[in-house]
Amino acid sequence: IYALDGQKLGSEVLNVLISISPTLEEIDLLKNYDGDEKLLGNVEKFFLDLLTIPRYTQRIKCFRYKLQFENRILETQAQLDTLVAATDQVAESDKFRRVLEHILAIGNYLNGSTPRGGAYGFKLDTLTKLHALKSVDPRVTLMNFMLHQLEEKNPEIITFAGEVPHIVEAKRLSLDQLRADLSSYNTELAMLQGQVRASKSDRIEGDKFYEVMTPFAKDAVEVLEELGRDFNGLETSYQELITSFGEDPRKVGPMEFFTIMDEFVTEFKKAYRQNQTKEYQTIYEEAAAARAAAEVEKAERLQREAEERQRQEEERQQKSAGTKAIYAEIMSIITSWAEKHAPGQEEAVVEEFKAASRRFGMDQISADEFCDQVRQCVGSKTAGKIIPNSVKLLADESKQSALLEAFDRFKGQVKKEKESKKQRNSLVSPPMSQGRDRAPSAGRKRGNKVVIPLPMQNIEPVVGEEAQLLHKSILEAVLQAFGGDSKKMKSFTSHTRKYGNEQITAHEFYQYLTASFEPDFVGRLVPDLARLLQDSEKRHALIIALCESAPGWAKFAGL
Fold first, then answer.
1. pTM: predicted TM-score of the whole model, two decimal places
2. 312 Cβ contact partners less than 8 Å away, ≥ 6 residues apart
3. Which domain holds residue 545?
4. What is the DSSP letter of 449?
């Protein structure tokens, strides 16, 4: 032990000596023994001899450390070299990177426009799932499909496994274990350095501990420093590699990472071998034929769709041209009516019709209400021309049917009103040819009423600028009579239009006037309103209503 003879004291012997070292209690007993040593057993005598060696246990551990140091360092260095090589190979493999790009492209294609499509990368454990994802044919996995694609388009990268040969060994190694080993080496070295310093002052003859261990401790420091630098470099390289895969190096160690890599390479090779068999070659040939047929069918379908779109576009253009013509005709009819019956208000009449059309199109009014509003706007006769054309502008067939049915009811109502009007006129007024040049007579009786023949030569319609001036004068007079009340003015305009559109009779219109104005004002107003009417029947009926009122007739006749 003093001589540190490694030939006689190997590591196994040293381990035994350490394991049988006396305990503290045994050491105290032996040191305090003052009896005859011959009475002691061989073990006790051996322990007494050991106690003569300063720091016996520490010396043996230091000696064992020296004997095992080289082998332990070589083993650790080999593990470091393996991990460094595997890390560098994966990081520097251009073929492996291109394989990963291919996997990403396939994944994005399969996921399409889903939230998982258009990805910039994928999780590391995806590599272990490719062989488990099966196609419609359960024999073909995603790994098989990828290999087939690579064989057709990038066969040179299939051999990427040759660029990463060390991953098989690296998957068995742990950075944490290497770190623990280095820590243990340095701890034991620190103990050895302490023993070297202690032995310098208590050396005895034949004790070579200081002489042998001093240079060893110096060499060991250099070796461990270099080993530490290698470990730090490996740790940095590995962290960069794992980070480049989007993983956390604190959670994914070399064992897990290189196990994933090894499994991927194993399944990659397996899929390649499968693809070379006749069975799989047949599968791919049939799939290629099916794709070709599908491409032909797709091309034909796209051609049919293009032709159909062209046909629809031609129909749309034709329909659009027809629609524009119909719309232009409607606007022309409305404008012509407004120029004749509401001079100066052409735009307002057109806008009123458009508003009614919008309300009907948006289901805010019914078809019957639309017909009534068109009648209020331009009268029955013109409405009878506009409504049928409006039907043609509707794209909704249900609205077309509804408006046609409403128009039939509208025509029936107009017909009834005309017949009723004709019947009333035959009862209350002579033919217009009669009395044209006659002065007012005393009249004739109809029941209890006196019917006064109308001198029509006194009521002539006005047109053009004269009509506009008269219309303006009437509105000013009415507004003044109402005291500037806009609501009453709106009601007057509405009743006037309703009479013009044959929605109310002359008698109903006259009743409204007498209820709204003084009799003298009505007597002056009615003849002026009559002069604005181009329809002789409406003009005649309004004057008849005036004449049936004694005060009104007196005012009109100047009596």
1. 0.50
2. none
3. 464-556
4. E
